[in-house]
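Methods, example record. To illustrate the input and output format used throughout this study, we show the complete record for SAM-dependent DNA methyltransferase. The sequence lines were provided to the predictor; the line carrying structure tokens was produced by it.
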Amino acid sequence: MTPSVLDSLTLSLPDIAELARVQRPVVSMWRRRYATAAWPFPEAVVTRRDQQRFRASEVTAWIERSGLGRNPSFAADVALRAALDEVPGLDADVALDGLTSLLHLKSQTGELLGALSRAEVLDLADEVDPDDHLAYSEIEALGDRLGVLCEVADTAADAAYTPAGALEAVLLDRHRAGRKLLTESAASAGALDVVARIVLVLTSGRGPLVLANPYADCGDLLVTVVGAVAEASGEHDAPTCAVPGTRTDPAARLARRRLGALGVRVVDLDADDAVGHAVSSGATIVAQLPPVGSTPWSDDEVLRAVETLAVQREPGRFAVVLGPAGALVGAVEGQAEKLRSGLLRNGEVRSVVELPAGLLPGRSRERLAIWVLGDPPADVGLAKQWMTVSDLTGEGAVGGVLDEGVVDDLVTDVVAAQGVLADVRAHAFRFTRFAYTSELVASRSDLSADFRRLRVGQRDDGGRAAVRAHELAAGLGLEGAEFVVAGPGRDPRRETLRSLEVRGGVRRISGNRLDPRAVGAVGEVPVVGPAELTGDVIPGERRMDRRTFSALSAARYTEPGDVIFCTAPYPAAMVDHVGLSVVEFPAQVLRIDRAAAPGLVPHVLAEDITSQRATAKRWRTWEVREVPEDQVSALEELLAAVGQHEAQVLDEARRLAELRTTLTRGVADASILLRTVDNA
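The corresponding predicted structure is encoded as:
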């Protein structure tokens, strides 16, 4: 990278921190500590949108000289960030399209683009893309900034080892840049990986792999599947990818560039007026609905698209669809219910997988689901058609990624579900339940409502959970940590709240209808409602006068151990350890009768409620776990210690926040003076 390129680019302090892989305050500390050093931190050269900006070349030289930061590829990453944000005289979208096109060009030719003239680069682009399917227009649009972007492309490719790696690195920054064409409806890498793993195993041993996505988008799903193939043992030949033949859609052109850089043969899907696109012979269909770049679709739109994919699927091949759980799994009505029932009746829906929340950036509470379409089971009649339903909603998605063991077991479940009935009955499923299609259609409700299980058939984890629990408890200094040991493992006993209510294990108590004017910051009695349960208000902040509450008809206080819950805006719950709180309608209380339900533990009940889907409003259908009776007392003692420690930490956090606010306000308005060496 020549200095002239970075000389024309600038960075903000948050940019420097992110690219150096340090916290934002660290960069401010560098500025102060090294302000008078022999090699001082660079001075800001411009202020833009109230943010100081620093010349990229000076920052890069300072980082390299000082050895600070945690990013050995700082210079290359700076070039990518700054080039996409602010190449002078170039729109950010034009820069992104141009840079990805140059990286594709570099992947096809191996040329050092920065050493070529503008005319030579354009001639090279014309040779690689003579019909302007994917890159020529984008490169030409760079105008007199082409040379700058060529040098950026060379540097990025060197840092990432390959042009394809650099191209994907450019797109990692898409959510910060906020380009809707690349971010709207985009799934996390973890969700895409689950689909890719399923596709990889389903297509194993079926000859050369052909993938088809009839919907034009930027290619996230296809690229992920191709990457999974590349990491496999080599059983598959290099795949062919079929995409819509449109030449003008920017997202489709980007998809072609990404796939081409990976060495994939890309072919056009032929237009077919009946179904939109005719899918190549022998292709496995992979699609995300709605496609990346699209705004959210209605349930009807999603299911009509799945219906089209079912028509396009070739006998003997699979279609794997990633889409919103609301349409694919949740309770639907009207035309959407008719569409989904029709799809289920034809027997092609072989597996349904509901994924946990947290896999859709920007919409953290929404869930995704996967449908696997294949040939109907051949070993049973129409009345006995069956499918499988997998539920991962109780699993955590950390940073948009699922645990590796969870994905492994899910893939095993899904693949086993594609066999004959005898194979399915012989398999020990972890997350999956067998279901007759006719029963699911007849229920006209959430597909997993009557089949929900937490860790069904869970395999022995080799003691990992016990080791981790012991480490956490011991690290926090909790009493009882030494008693956490590995157990034999078993399926948890589960029961619906309806069943528990019928046999007296739990009793539901309605919340109190309160006058909003009677609730405030002052009073003896804490008030708990949906706002506290969902975290919008800290428990204890809303209170009311005891005499005012006692004057209400049917006034009811909580008791220690009560589980307070709500169904809207989504299921949430907490345990009241102290009692004597007021529960505000529409929140409700579940009171456990230990004699009738000796294995029901309040904290476990609250966790199971909170893990329900956002659309699961019928609380009596919820299944909850019961703990072995000989473990109840010990678990409650350790959980009590956890709760006490958590309360102390939260109280300390609140006091720290108050101190921060008091200091910032007080010093700003001079009501507080901090003694220093200068003013002591």
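Annotations derived from this record:
The CA atoms of residues 307 and 343 lie 7 Å apart.
The chain has a mean pLDDT of 84.
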